Amino acid sequence: MNSPVKGWRDRVFDAAVFFFVCVFVVFVLILIVSDVFYINKKAVVTVLTSRFIIHALWMSIWTSFSTTFISLLFAVPVGYALSRLRFPGRILADAIVDLPIVFPPLVVGLTLLVFFSQTSIGRWIQDDLGLEFVFQPKGIVLCQFVAAASLAIRSSNTAFNDVSRRYENVALTLGCTRLGSFWRVSLPLARNGIIAGGILTWARAFGLFGPLMIFVGSFRGRTEVLSTTIFLEQSVGNLEVALAVALLLIFVALLAITIIRLVGGSALVKR
Length: 271
Description:
The protein has 2 domains: 1-38; 40-270, MetI-like (MetI-like fold), CATH 1.10.3720. Helices cover 82% and strands 0% of the residues. It is built from 12 helices and no strands. The chain has helices at residues 8-38, 41-49, 51-84, 90-102, 105-118, 120-128, 137-161, 165-173, 178-206, 210-215, 226-235, 239-270. It is flat and about 65 Å long. The chain starts with 7 loop residues before the first helix and ends with a helix.
């Protein structure tokens, strides 16, 4: 199909909107490049050799992957239920799923802290069951889960919404059960959207900061992650080291977004 011929007004309009694209992209790149030129070799060596920063990196990696795994365990059934089932309170449940996304980040940490330290249920979980979360590494995973799981659920829900129910109905007429049609039809077709949601959840958990400072603190060698390392290094005047860690987080975020774009693109091609 041939593209319509553009007049001079169309070209002016295209140039105008492209100008805003250039301004925004250049502004973000200038910020990143200025950080790159500010840090020095000593700061990079410190980031690569400090046992505390290496421990914080490992803590960020294993907690964020644990969070992503747990989030996907909830995201697939919850996303499918919100997409396919009709039940009382569905609209409210759908709204509550999105609530942590719009929470101010500090509210997540404060809410968890109050629950486990001030309520009888929270104290029973910690004291009687022995599941300690406050100022503990397990609390990092819990905090990340509350703050990031909604992203996986919403992405999963959107992916299932994009799968035509006609395919499921055909599977049912061919003798599949609801579980069989879900496992053999719906889940494979929604796979790319679920994977993209998992990557987005991991990136969110990997860079989480505010809630962690309130709920688990940032004790070196214990509950410190890369995002809180930035705060600790900046607070003692090591701005170059803080920026070096920040650039590492920016690189991780850029990598995650790129993978999401590639997964999303492959999903579109398959459809």
